[in-house]
Design brief:
YheC/D; alpha+beta; 7 helices; YheC/YheD family protein
Length: 254
């Protein structure tokens, strides 16, 4: 994530606000001690670089029954990796390959693995595009993403399929119209609250806010992007893409 708050700084802001603290996953700064603690607490966790974006330097990790640690994801260079190791220290070397030369790769965070899945077990996420128009936050558009690969990293740059929010909620998650509408309303409300919180420390005209949907159907806020792309909106629904562009024009008019 460029030109904005890091993931850890975001978490602290959202955690401290009573309106957003209950819609974010447990997170902590990376250390081997914290990694082992959360791996024993959750079925799986994610390790993410504090400032990287586009699905780079993110790993899904779980502890196998035989005690081995398995991880998959993408390196800082965007190369896919999938491996199981006997010692968790071997994973640490993947994060910091040049540590023995005195060079670290920056800070990482560890995030609770939220089960945001279709009934078939495919990982899903939701992008909400929020824009500030004349001092008021408005929703520019929403779409869903389904991970079509086994790595479980839901990102458009890593092979995820972009679909309409209606298709995701009704078709994949099989919500009825009432539940679907309630979920969309919650996504919009949580997005505007998050935008207000983040804007107090990192003012931007728009944010791309990523959510998961846990097994109880509750939106869980994963991350706020301060330089969001709108390419996927054009693929899903050209009218939504045009709406975002029109709001941008109105922003430029002052």
């Amino acid at each position: 994530m460029k030109n904005g708050l890091g993931k850890w700084e975001q978490f602290l802001l959202l955690k401290q606000n009573p309106l957003t603290t209950n819609c974010i996953p447990e997170s902590t700064l990376y250390s081997l001690e914290n990694l082992i603690y959360l791996l024993n607490k959750y079925e799986y966790i994610y390790v993410k670089h504090n400032s990287a974006g586009q699905g780079r330097a993110i790993y899904k990790i779980y502890k196998r029954k035989d005690g081995h640690y398995c991880f998959n994801g993408f390196t800082m260079q965007g190369e896919e990796i999938s491996k199981c190791v006997a010692a968790i220290e071997d994973f640490h070397q993947v994060l910091h390959p040049y540590e023995k030369h005195g060079r670290l790769s920056g800070n990482y965070i560890i995030q609770e693995g939220v089960k945001s899945l279709t009934p078939d077990g495919d990982s899903i996420s939701i992008r909400v595009h929020v824009q500030n128009l004349k001092g008021k936050w408005v929703i520019g558009g929403i779409y869903g993403r389904v991970a079509t690969e086994d790595h479980g990293i839901v990102n458009s740059n890593r092979g995820s399929k972009a679909i309409s929010i209606e298709e995701l909620l009704s078709g994949y998650l099989m919500m009825d119209n009432t539940k679907k509408d309630q979920t969309i309303d919650s996504l919009k409300e949580d997005s505007i609250l998050a935008a207000e919180v983040i804007a107090s420390h990192c003012p931007c005209r728009e944010y791309g806010i990523d959510f998961g949907i846990n097994l109880e159907g509750k939106p869980i806020l994963f991350e706020v992007n301060t330089t969001p792309s709108i390419r996927s909106f054009a693929k899903v629904d050209r009218a939504i893409w045009k709406n975002i562009v029109e709001i941008r024009k109105k922003q430029n008019e002052g």
